[in-house]
Write a structure and sequence with these properties.
Blueprint: H1 5-8, E1 11-17, E2 23-34, E3 43-48, H2 50-58, E4 63-69, E5 75-81, E6 97-103, E7 112-113, H3 120-125, E8 133-138, E9 152-161, E10 166-167, E11 173-174, E12 177-180, E13 191-195, E14 199-202, E15 205-208, E16 214-232, E17 237-253, H4 254-267, E18 273-275
Parallel strand pairs: 2-7, 6-18
Antiparallel strand pairs: 1-2, 1-4, 2-3, 3-6, 4-5, 8-9, 8-13, 9-12, 10-11, 12-17, 13-16, 14-15, 16-17
Protein backbone atom coordinates (compact mmCIF):
# COMPACT_ATOMS: atom_id res chain seq x y z
CA UNK A 1 0.00 0.00 0.00
CA UNK A 2 1.27 3.45 -0.94
CA UNK A 3 -0.16 6.23 1.23
CA UNK A 4 -1.03 9.31 -0.86
CA UNK A 5 1.10 12.36 0.04
CA UNK A 6 -2.13 14.37 0.40
CA UNK A 7 -2.95 12.33 3.52
CA UNK A 8 0.30 13.40 5.19
CA UNK A 9 -0.59 17.05 4.56
CA UNK A 10 -3.66 16.71 6.80
CA UNK A 11 -1.48 16.26 9.91
CA UNK A 12 0.15 18.81 12.22
CA UNK A 13 2.04 18.44 15.50
CA UNK A 14 0.87 19.64 18.93
CA UNK A 15 3.15 21.05 21.60
CA UNK A 16 3.75 23.47 24.44
CA UNK A 17 6.28 26.23 25.01
CA UNK A 18 8.72 25.82 27.88
CA UNK A 19 9.91 28.58 30.19
CA UNK A 20 13.24 28.67 28.33
CA UNK A 21 11.44 29.34 25.04
CA UNK A 22 11.90 25.87 23.59
CA UNK A 23 8.98 23.77 22.39
CA UNK A 24 7.97 20.33 23.63
CA UNK A 25 5.99 17.93 21.46
CA UNK A 26 2.93 16.30 22.98
CA UNK A 27 0.98 14.68 20.17
CA UNK A 28 -0.56 14.93 16.73
CA UNK A 29 -3.48 16.86 15.24
CA UNK A 30 -5.63 16.08 12.23
CA UNK A 31 -7.13 18.78 9.98
CA UNK A 32 -10.72 18.17 8.87
CA UNK A 33 -13.43 20.31 7.34
CA UNK A 34 -16.85 20.37 5.78
CA UNK A 35 -16.56 20.61 2.01
CA UNK A 36 -20.03 19.58 0.85
CA UNK A 37 -18.41 18.32 -2.34
CA UNK A 38 -17.39 21.86 -3.33
CA UNK A 39 -13.64 21.23 -3.19
CA UNK A 40 -13.03 23.71 -0.37
CA UNK A 41 -13.89 23.73 3.32
CA UNK A 42 -16.13 26.38 4.83
CA UNK A 43 -15.30 25.32 8.38
CA UNK A 44 -11.96 23.81 9.42
CA UNK A 45 -11.01 22.06 12.66
CA UNK A 46 -7.74 20.84 14.12
CA UNK A 47 -8.59 17.67 16.02
CA UNK A 48 -6.50 15.85 18.61
CA UNK A 49 -6.99 13.62 21.64
CA UNK A 50 -8.46 15.26 24.71
CA UNK A 51 -5.72 13.80 26.89
CA UNK A 52 -3.08 15.62 24.80
CA UNK A 53 -4.65 19.00 25.67
CA UNK A 54 -5.11 17.94 29.29
CA UNK A 55 -1.43 16.94 29.50
CA UNK A 56 -0.44 20.41 28.32
CA UNK A 57 -2.84 21.94 30.86
CA UNK A 58 -1.25 19.92 33.67
CA UNK A 59 2.07 21.56 32.78
CA UNK A 60 0.51 24.87 33.78
CA UNK A 61 0.48 26.19 30.21
CA UNK A 62 -2.21 28.56 28.97
CA UNK A 63 -1.41 28.10 25.27
CA UNK A 64 -1.40 25.13 22.93
CA UNK A 65 1.07 25.44 20.09
CA UNK A 66 0.63 23.86 16.66
CA UNK A 67 3.66 23.18 14.50
CA UNK A 68 2.61 23.55 10.87
CA UNK A 69 4.46 23.26 7.57
CA UNK A 70 4.92 26.19 5.21
CA UNK A 71 5.02 26.15 1.43
CA UNK A 72 8.55 27.59 1.44
CA UNK A 73 9.88 24.37 2.96
CA UNK A 74 10.05 25.54 6.57
CA UNK A 75 7.72 25.19 9.54
CA UNK A 76 6.23 27.52 12.14
CA UNK A 77 4.70 27.27 15.60
CA UNK A 78 1.22 28.76 15.84
CA UNK A 79 -0.22 29.83 19.20
CA UNK A 80 -3.76 28.96 20.26
CA UNK A 81 -5.38 29.66 23.61
CA UNK A 82 -5.80 26.53 25.68
CA UNK A 83 -9.34 27.65 26.49
CA UNK A 84 -10.28 27.69 22.80
CA UNK A 85 -9.94 23.90 22.58
CA UNK A 86 -13.38 22.35 22.98
CA UNK A 87 -14.27 19.00 24.59
CA UNK A 88 -17.58 17.20 24.67
CA UNK A 89 -19.67 19.25 27.13
CA UNK A 90 -21.20 16.30 29.02
CA UNK A 91 -19.30 13.10 28.21
CA UNK A 92 -15.79 13.13 29.70
CA UNK A 93 -15.11 9.63 28.31
CA UNK A 94 -14.79 10.99 24.76
CA UNK A 95 -11.08 11.48 24.13
CA UNK A 96 -11.46 14.22 21.52
CA UNK A 97 -10.60 17.92 21.52
CA UNK A 98 -11.04 20.41 18.67
CA UNK A 99 -10.22 23.99 17.79
CA UNK A 100 -11.66 25.89 14.84
CA UNK A 101 -9.00 27.51 12.69
CA UNK A 102 -8.73 28.88 9.19
CA UNK A 103 -5.74 27.96 7.05
CA UNK A 104 -3.82 30.73 5.30
CA UNK A 105 -2.39 30.43 1.81
CA UNK A 106 1.20 30.08 3.02
CA UNK A 107 0.56 26.79 4.84
CA UNK A 108 1.52 23.53 3.15
CA UNK A 109 -1.47 21.64 4.49
CA UNK A 110 -4.71 20.21 3.17
CA UNK A 111 -8.10 19.77 4.80
CA UNK A 112 -9.45 16.24 4.86
CA UNK A 113 -13.16 16.21 3.92
CA UNK A 114 -15.09 15.04 6.95
CA UNK A 115 -17.63 13.55 4.56
CA UNK A 116 -15.03 10.90 3.69
CA UNK A 117 -15.20 9.27 7.11
CA UNK A 118 -15.92 5.70 8.13
CA UNK A 119 -19.35 5.93 9.69
CA UNK A 120 -20.98 2.70 10.83
CA UNK A 121 -23.06 2.87 7.64
CA UNK A 122 -19.94 3.17 5.46
CA UNK A 123 -18.31 0.23 7.22
CA UNK A 124 -21.44 -1.85 6.70
CA UNK A 125 -21.75 -0.76 3.06
CA UNK A 126 -18.19 -1.92 2.32
CA UNK A 127 -18.55 -5.01 4.55
CA UNK A 128 -15.49 -3.82 6.46
CA UNK A 129 -14.33 -5.71 9.50
CA UNK A 130 -11.63 -7.78 11.13
CA UNK A 131 -8.42 -7.99 9.16
CA UNK A 132 -9.01 -4.94 6.99
CA UNK A 133 -5.92 -2.80 6.52
CA UNK A 134 -5.50 0.42 8.50
CA UNK A 135 -2.75 3.01 8.78
CA UNK A 136 -1.79 5.78 11.21
CA UNK A 137 0.09 8.95 10.36
CA UNK A 138 1.46 11.37 12.92
CA UNK A 139 4.30 12.44 15.21
CA UNK A 140 7.33 10.25 15.94
CA UNK A 141 9.10 12.07 18.76
CA UNK A 142 12.52 10.69 17.86
CA UNK A 143 12.38 12.10 14.32
CA UNK A 144 10.09 15.12 14.19
CA UNK A 145 11.93 16.94 11.43
CA UNK A 146 14.43 19.77 11.95
CA UNK A 147 13.04 22.27 9.43
CA UNK A 148 9.49 20.97 9.01
CA UNK A 149 7.11 18.32 10.30
CA UNK A 150 7.84 14.81 9.08
CA UNK A 151 4.86 12.56 9.90
CA UNK A 152 5.48 8.82 9.99
CA UNK A 153 3.14 6.08 8.78
CA UNK A 154 2.38 2.83 10.63
CA UNK A 155 0.35 0.11 8.94
CA UNK A 156 -1.75 -2.59 10.58
CA UNK A 157 -5.17 -4.14 10.53
CA UNK A 158 -8.51 -4.06 12.31
CA UNK A 159 -8.32 -6.41 15.30
CA UNK A 160 -11.70 -5.91 16.91
CA UNK A 161 -14.93 -4.10 16.12
CA UNK A 162 -17.25 -4.79 19.01
CA UNK A 163 -20.35 -3.30 20.59
CA UNK A 164 -18.74 -3.79 24.00
CA UNK A 165 -16.88 -0.85 25.48
CA UNK A 166 -13.12 -0.94 26.02
CA UNK A 167 -11.68 -0.49 29.49
CA UNK A 168 -9.01 2.22 29.62
CA UNK A 169 -6.74 3.53 32.35
CA UNK A 170 -7.75 7.20 32.46
CA UNK A 171 -11.06 7.43 30.59
CA UNK A 172 -12.94 4.49 32.02
CA UNK A 173 -14.95 2.38 29.59
CA UNK A 174 -15.07 3.94 26.14
CA UNK A 175 -16.46 3.11 22.72
CA UNK A 176 -13.66 2.26 20.34
CA UNK A 177 -11.96 -0.05 17.89
CA UNK A 178 -8.88 -2.17 18.44
CA UNK A 179 -6.24 -2.26 15.74
CA UNK A 180 -3.00 -4.18 15.42
CA UNK A 181 -0.64 -1.26 14.90
CA UNK A 182 1.94 -0.23 17.46
CA UNK A 183 1.06 3.17 18.92
CA UNK A 184 3.80 5.10 20.71
CA UNK A 185 3.97 8.39 22.59
CA UNK A 186 3.42 11.21 20.12
CA UNK A 187 0.88 9.35 18.00
CA UNK A 188 -1.91 10.29 20.42
CA UNK A 189 -4.47 12.24 18.40
CA UNK A 190 -3.19 10.85 15.11
CA UNK A 191 -5.76 9.98 12.46
CA UNK A 192 -6.39 6.35 11.59
CA UNK A 193 -7.57 5.44 8.10
CA UNK A 194 -9.11 2.23 6.86
CA UNK A 195 -8.11 1.09 3.40
CA UNK A 196 -10.98 -0.50 1.47
CA UNK A 197 -8.67 -1.21 -1.46
CA UNK A 198 -9.31 -0.88 -5.17
CA UNK A 199 -10.84 -4.35 -5.51
CA UNK A 200 -13.34 -5.70 -3.03
CA UNK A 201 -16.05 -8.32 -2.76
CA UNK A 202 -19.29 -6.76 -1.51
CA UNK A 203 -22.53 -8.68 -1.39
CA UNK A 204 -20.94 -11.53 -3.30
CA UNK A 205 -19.99 -9.28 -6.24
CA UNK A 206 -16.62 -7.94 -7.28
CA UNK A 207 -16.38 -4.16 -6.94
CA UNK A 208 -13.53 -2.23 -8.53
CA UNK A 209 -12.26 1.31 -8.16
CA UNK A 210 -9.67 3.16 -10.23
CA UNK A 211 -7.96 4.26 -7.00
CA UNK A 212 -7.61 2.87 -3.47
CA UNK A 213 -10.49 3.93 -1.25
CA UNK A 214 -9.58 5.40 2.15
CA UNK A 215 -11.88 6.51 4.95
CA UNK A 216 -11.09 8.33 8.21
CA UNK A 217 -11.73 5.71 10.89
CA UNK A 218 -10.90 7.70 14.03
CA UNK A 219 -8.16 9.02 16.34
CA UNK A 220 -5.46 7.17 18.26
CA UNK A 221 -6.35 7.06 21.96
CA UNK A 222 -3.47 4.92 23.20
CA UNK A 223 -2.26 1.36 23.51
CA UNK A 224 -2.09 -1.54 25.94
CA UNK A 225 1.07 -2.36 27.91
CA UNK A 226 1.99 -5.46 29.85
CA UNK A 227 4.57 -5.77 32.60
CA UNK A 228 7.49 -7.91 31.53
CA UNK A 229 10.90 -8.68 33.00
CA UNK A 230 14.26 -9.89 31.85
CA UNK A 231 15.11 -12.97 33.91
CA UNK A 232 18.43 -14.69 34.36
CA UNK A 233 17.50 -18.24 33.45
CA UNK A 234 20.29 -19.80 35.53
CA UNK A 235 19.64 -17.89 38.75
CA UNK A 236 15.98 -17.04 38.16
CA UNK A 237 16.65 -13.49 39.28
CA UNK A 238 14.58 -10.63 37.91
CA UNK A 239 16.93 -8.13 36.33
CA UNK A 240 15.00 -5.31 34.67
CA UNK A 241 11.22 -5.07 34.93
CA UNK A 242 9.68 -2.88 32.24
CA UNK A 243 6.47 -2.10 30.36
CA UNK A 244 6.07 -3.73 26.96
CA UNK A 245 3.76 -2.46 24.23
CA UNK A 246 1.35 -5.24 23.20
CA UNK A 247 1.02 -3.87 19.67
CA UNK A 248 -2.73 -3.34 20.04
CA UNK A 249 -3.91 0.28 19.84
CA UNK A 250 -7.26 1.84 20.77
CA UNK A 251 -9.03 4.04 18.23
CA UNK A 252 -11.67 6.61 19.15
CA UNK A 253 -14.30 6.19 16.38
CA UNK A 254 -15.09 8.93 13.89
CA UNK A 255 -18.60 9.23 15.34
CA UNK A 256 -17.13 10.59 18.58
CA UNK A 257 -15.14 13.21 16.67
CA UNK A 258 -18.31 14.14 14.81
CA UNK A 259 -20.23 14.33 18.08
CA UNK A 260 -17.78 16.82 19.60
CA UNK A 261 -17.85 18.96 16.45
CA UNK A 262 -21.66 18.88 16.42
CA UNK A 263 -21.84 19.98 20.06
CA UNK A 264 -19.43 22.81 19.33
CA UNK A 265 -21.46 23.98 16.34
CA UNK A 266 -24.64 24.01 18.44
CA UNK A 267 -23.15 26.65 20.72
CA UNK A 268 -22.58 29.01 17.82
CA UNK A 269 -19.09 29.63 19.15
CA UNK A 270 -17.08 32.07 17.09
CA UNK A 271 -13.54 31.40 18.27
CA UNK A 272 -12.23 31.02 14.74
CA UNK A 273 -8.80 32.43 13.99
CA UNK A 274 -7.02 32.63 10.66
CA UNK A 275 -3.54 31.18 10.36
CA UNK A 276 -1.94 33.41 7.74
CA UNK A 277 1.02 35.63 8.52
CA UNK A 278 3.11 33.59 10.93
CA UNK A 279 6.71 33.75 12.00
CA UNK A 280 8.94 30.99 10.70
CA UNK A 281 11.06 28.85 12.96
CA UNK A 282 14.56 30.11 13.46
Amino acid sequence: MNVPPEILKCVAFVGAKKVNGEYEFFGSAFIVGFTGGRGYAEQVFFVTARHVIQAIQKKGATQVWLRVNLKDGNSAWVETALGSWAFHPTDASIDVSIVELGIGSDLDHLVFPIEQSATREVLAQHEAGHGDEVFITGLFRHHTGARRNIPIVRVGNVSCISKEKIRTKDFGEIEGYLIEARSVGGLSGSPVFINMGGIRFIGGSLKMSAHPVYFFLGLIHGHFDIKAAAVDAAQEVELSPERVNTGIAIVTPFEKVSEVISEYRKTGAQSKAIIQKIKKDA
